[in-house]
Amino acid sequence: MEQNLIGAMPWIVTSAEPMLTAAQANTQAEFDRAYRSISQDSAYRGRNLLYIAGLHVDISPSPEQAFVLTKFIPWAAYVQLKNGERYVLEQEALFARLQACSADNPQQLGLDAAIQMMEDEEEIYLHLPY
Fold first, then answer.
1. Does position 4 have pLDDT exceeding 70, yes or no?
2. What share of the chain is helix, strand, coil (3-state, %, to 5)?
3. What's the Rg (C-alpha) of the chain?
4. CB-facing half-sphere around the CA of 94: CA atoms within 13 A
5. Band of the pLDDT at 104, cuts 50, 70, 90?
6. Closest listed residue to residue 73, CA positions, set 47, 85, 91, 90
7. Whole-prediction pTM value?
8. Which residue, 51, 46, 113, 121, is CA-closest to 81?
9. Which of 71, 79, 110, 125 sits at a 20 to 30 Å CA gap from 33?
């Protein structure tokens, strides 16, 4: 992380929100590293691939809330199609593409039902060597 932030340090220390600015700089550096690695790895050739990087922001819960509220802010995406086409979507273009998608998800799972199914399963005990 230190290597990711050193070049952005003047931007970070003069920012009104240095922690958020540092997180943005780190997200950008990690996206660049990851998409360059993926795009050069032969194991991913001939495959459809979508890599979306972004920033997770945790918002402290109010006293009546049980959990932290987490928001995801997309930063950029790397798109690779099996026909060899590749491109990067910067944040504005990525937002536009995501907003153009339907909110309907026919494969959506009910979280309560999924948790109940896990609770109803018989316990599996693992014996690990020490």
1. no
2. 45, 20, 35
3. 20
4. 17
5. very high
6. 91
7. 0.70
8. 46
9. 71
